[in-house]
Amino acid sequence: IIASALVFSILLPLILILGMDFFDNKLRSVEQLKSSTDIPVLATLLHEKQNHAMFEQDFILSPLAESFRYLKVNIDYLLDEEAHQKVIAVTSMVKGEGKTFTSSHLAAVMALSGKKTIIIGADIRRPQLYKRLKQENEAGLSNFLAGKSSLEEVVKDTPIHNLDIITSGHRPPNPLEILNSSRFEDLVESLKAAYDYVIIDTPPVGLVSDFLILNQYADVELIVIRENYSQKDFIKEANELKAGE
Question: Angle at the Cα of 153 (from 128 to 199), degrees rounded to 5?
Answer without folding.
Answer: 45
